[in-house]
Amino acid sequence: MFFKRLKTISLQKNITLILKSRTKDFNSDKVSSIGVIFDYELYHNYEFFQELINELGIMKNKIRFIAMIDQEKNRPNSWDSFFSLDSFDWLGRPNNIEVDNFVEQPFDLLISYYNPTKLELNLVTALSKANFKIGINTEDTRLHDLIIDIKPSNTEVFKVELIKYLTQLNRL
Asked: What's the pTM value of the predicted model, to 2 decimals?
């Protein structure tokens, strides 16, 4: 119990430190690589993401997914990478090679498709080296550069809004 609380405090502290030190250096290049982070237990519609990627015109080899699962033993095999609560040490630092590889990837666009917030998802989003971050979670506005306030099940609205905003920003 004590270590779980300590881990929670450490995660919150790490997120705050990372977000304070983040420099927003946006480039105006077209989006050519995308990272997607989501909570597998609440939403795992792979077909939606594939349709979205096709509509954006991004090549499939330029897409990476990472999903948070409750336990490693429940790990499905339909996504690229997974992490769980055990993927972070008691100080709130990631100790999973899949998380490290994902956050070091310099994506043009990161889509954080989760709501409600979970500290582990927020930490991976904050750690990501993505140039532009889009999310649907409004609880911590410092995490994302653009927030589309919808429920995860409302995929059509998200797709339309994402394409609209990326077009207006001249990123498509």
From this structure: 0.90
